[in-house]
Specification:
elongated, alpha+beta, four-stranded antiparallel sheet, about 100 residues, Beta-lactamase Inhibitory Protein, Chain:B, domain 1
Length: about 100
Amino acid sequence: MKSLIHRSLFVLLAGLVFAAAGCDRNALTGSRLTQENFDKVVVGMEKPQVETILGTPTTIETTDMLLFKKTTWRYEEGDKFALVNFKNEEVEGKESNLRR
């Protein structure tokens, strides 16, 4: 009986590890703020696509210019950060310190 419980727990744990790896999250912290995910964000991408990749931003700052809206999404985790700049609803540029 104990052997069956141990095998079941092992299978459950292995399944959780593979599920977490499939979500493009840091295996230790569960964070989506990784260099791999940041590299997936490209110019022209729309906000919902970015949110699917990086998750909900830590802060959002929007400036309404006369002809367009400029929005900056900031992601922070400890000393790591990433900024994604949008012109209207599309990525215009990005920067981070994730490669350090």
